[in-house]
Design a protein that fits this description.
Elements (H helix, E strand, L loop, with lengths): L12 E2 L2 E2 L11 H32 L4 H13 L1 E5 L5 E6 L3 E2 L7 E7 L4 E9 L6 H15 L5 E11 L2 E14 L2 E14 L2 E10 H17 L1 E2 L2
Antiparallel strand pairs: 1-2, 3-4, 4-12, 5-6, 6-7, 7-11, 8-9, 9-10, 10-11
Helix pairs in contact: 1-3, 2-4
Length: 230
């Protein structure tokens, strides 16, 4: 009887070369797709929750007038402070007159607010596969959002490809409906998602829908300052 050579593995010896195990594509793993997208959901909901909490507090004490908000916007655009995340390559400028949470927990790297959080910005950074693109990152995040947020509560206004000083990114503008004290409240958000060098980044800006247009120039200025260093 012919003895098998233990040095050779049946089905893997192709002309003397041993076949390498097939690589697993994380985009094809349902569990991995959920994990990659869950941070975006957390950031989105966190922004809404803080805005709702701020809305309740501001509503009980009197909402600022349009003139008061315009003055805050003017100051916000006039003086900006640069933020550099020590644990990643992310940098962004933000208004010096906004409140920054001094200590945040990963994956959050920056948390900003004004008017008790009725207007807020949250940035996150998380480890991702190095070959994951911004489009793929946005896709898995969108899948996670669709599972967490009822369809009738979210209206996606626009989706576009943008560049963050040379880094490809996806930008969404959307309105999310919630309820505070029996009153329906619409939150308008812009979400920016990108990836670079094995990191996934998400920046979400939230405001009351009827305040958003006033603060949009501030959000735009912050977004245009985002850089992901090599």
């Amino acid at each position: 009887m012919q003895q098998n050579d233990p040095s050779k593995k049946s089905g893997h010896d192709l002309g003397g070369a041993t076949a390498e195990p097939a690589k697993v594509n994380p985009m094809q793993s349902p569990a991995m797709r959920i994990l990659m997208g869950v941070v975006g959901v957390i950031v989105m909901i966190s922004g809404i929750m803080q805005m709702m909490s701020g809305f309740k507090e501001m509503n009980s004490g009197g909402m600022p007038s349009e003139k008061d908000r315009a003055a805050v916007v003017e100051k916000s655009l006039a003086a900006m402070t640069e933020f550099q995340d020590p644990s990643s390559a992310f940098t962004m400028s933000y208004p010096s007159n906004w409140k920054r949470t001094p200590k945040v927990e990963a994956p959050t790297i920056l948390h900003l607010a004004v008017y008790e959080g009725t207007v807020n910005v949250i940035a996150t950074a998380e480890d991702e596969p190095k070959d994951l693109t911004a489009v793929e990152y946005a896709k898995v995040t969108d899948e996670a959002i669709s599972k967490a947020i009822p369809k009738d509560s979210l209206k996606r206004i626009s989706e576009e490809d943008i560049s963050l000083n040379g880094t490809p990114a996806r930008k969404w503008t959307q309105v999310v409906s919630s309820v505070s004290g029996g009153e329906k409240v619409n939150v308008k958000q812009v979400m920016i998602l990108t990836t670079k060098n094995g990191k996934g980044y998400c920046v979400t800006a939230s405001a009351l829908e009827n305040w958003y247009s006033q603060f949009e120039p501030v959000f735009d200025k912050m977004a245009s300052s985002i850089k992901i260093k090599d």
